[in-house]
Amino acid sequence: MLKLLDRLLNSRFWALAIKEINQILRNKQLIFLLVFPPTIQLLIYGAALNPDVQFLKLGIVDYARSEMSRELVAAMTENRVFVSEGYLLSEQDLAEEVRQGQVAVGIVIPPEFDRRLARGQSAEVQVLIDGVDANTAGIASGYISQIINQYSRQMNANFTTALVEPEVIFLYNPGLLSSWFFVPGVLGLVLTLTSSLVSSAAVVREKDTGTLEQLLMTPAEAWEILLAKIVPLFILLMGDVFLALGVGELVFHLPFRGSLPLFLLISALYVSVGIGIGILLATVSKNQQQVVLTSFFINLPLIQTSGAIAPIETMPAFFRYLSLINPLRHYVVIARGFLLKGVGILELWQHILALALFAVILLAFSVRQFRRQLI
Predict the structure, then answer these.
(1) What pLDDT, on a 0 to 100 scale, did the predictor assign at position 113?
(2) Topology of 56-155 in CATH?
């Protein structure tokens, strides 16, 4: 090991590595890409992405105009899920408001509402929901059912306790904070975008400036040229891992319940995957514009089928199986396992093994393609 280290320090690799480090430090745009976008993405995704539905505009048609109907309206608006946009005169007016997007949900209370309740009979209310956004509509429907069921229990004095009462305990995220779900996924997303774009830009820059041909004229071997580019980028990208963990802890109070050294080792594997993708992009692109455009065809499918933003369980069966060959999917599972659950290798060994295979295959293939360009 010491002989190998001494050989590296005294080889041309060290001079090339110092050259790369100096170029990176002089490249303010690259430093900006390594620091600013990851931080902004973590803050935006962690704060803005929220599966909860709140402040839906509610239109009301109250034909009963009674105390009981007003109590039902109050029950629907007291928890901030629905916000009253005022009373309308008829169902036609309410339907028009929903059609124009002025309200998302409408409720029609019939004139015999309080009389039927007073006689102990069931009373029907009509609910109109804008179904253009199917996810929001489904959640709103569930909230309305819960609110009306709770209101019915309060109105029915003969209601008896159910024979079975569930006691629900939320593990690993007792506060049900959506940011705790999204931030570990965004960590993988940030590493994917940053590592692939930065590494591809670093390699293709040599083509744009014409210095690749100058490097070929030096006595340096192909592996020395490529390794000198990878190592400085690898170190800087690992800094993004610390940056993301720091933002998660300071801003979102995200816990870290697993082994930090082991997680950093696995993150190093995934950074290698991103660098492999970036070098591969650089070998098939002639300039930086082509790199950026080509990356959309790779990074977007990786992100969309990874489970970083939307749960994999909600995807069609074809895409669930397709996600098994997505390295980001495996890293997201690992990140959530380490940060939120505190699990380790025994529980996640399949995902770690898959990530290691992706790293070896992508790096080997991208290095081979790069060496072909140097010949």
Answers:
(1) 85
(2) abc type-2 transporter like fold (3.40.1710)
